[in-house]
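so my prof wants the structure for this chain in the tokens format not the other one, which i didnt know existed until like an hour ago. anyway here's the sequence
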Amino acid sequence: MATEESVPAPSPLHLYLGKTCYDQFCRALGGTGPKGGAAEEWQAMSDRERTAWQAAAEAVLRKAQQEGTSLPQTSGNLTDGTPKPAGTSNPPP
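here's what i got, hopefully its the right format
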């Protein structure tokens, strides 16, 4: 039987990126979640689902950095005015 490996706690940046991707995904679908019903609150999702969104966001960031893509910088708020969480900085250019 497989045992679960210990997964380190995500950094504030990964939490921020994962939640931002999930929120924007749901907004793009008009408030519908990935399963087709009403969008679930971030904290109501399972750890596994939140970790998957964080991993997806991290992969996009890593790919953009590898390709030398210039990422837009923000000045404290998301495009919808939501403040960034404490301890979060912009990804390096």
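also thought this was worth mentioning. The mean pLDDT is 75.
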